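Weekly structure sync, notes
Attendees: PL (lead), two postdocs, one rotation student
Agenda item 3: pending single-chain targets
PL asked that the sequence for the first pending target be pasted directly into the notes so everyone works from the same version. It is reproduced below exactly as submitted, 161 residues in total.
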Amino acid sequence: MKKGIFFIFILISGLLEATLLDSFKVFGVKPNLLLISISLAGLYFDLKWAFVLGIFAGILKDSLGANSFGINVLLFPLWVFLIIELSKKIPIDHNLIRMILIFIIGIFNSIITRLIFFVSGGFVTSLAIFLRVTFLESLYTAAILPLMLKVIKPTIYSVNQ
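Predicted structure, written out during the meeting:
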């Protein structure tokens, strides 16, 4: 039942990201709520469920976004897998560590997404704009993490019990 609530949380995050967050852009960028959602899924669910949630979030992001379809369907489960493997090696139990992790994943996600977009023949901006957008989007995404944890915290902790 709690996993179904997390599906709804991902759905709401995707819809907010595609609609309402356009009003909250900072320097032309908005946070990647779905990246935060799949990161939390990787931290709090087992591999099978986190992988399913990652695929669902990737399909949702690709369906609602302007990127080529399939990029996030491949990348989100990859990030889930890497988060689960990393959490086996080091404890990721403090919000600052989670924020740094999401910041790093956000940077890699942006770089890989834009490289795939470039290779497939998409329009690419200058390197300076690309780096600025990548850095600011990742920073904004990491800064939103504590707020999202406050919203979903009761569901996450009740899943583990």
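Discussion points:
- The mean pLDDT is 86.
- The chain has one domain: 2-160.
Action: rotation student to compare against the earlier draft before next sync.
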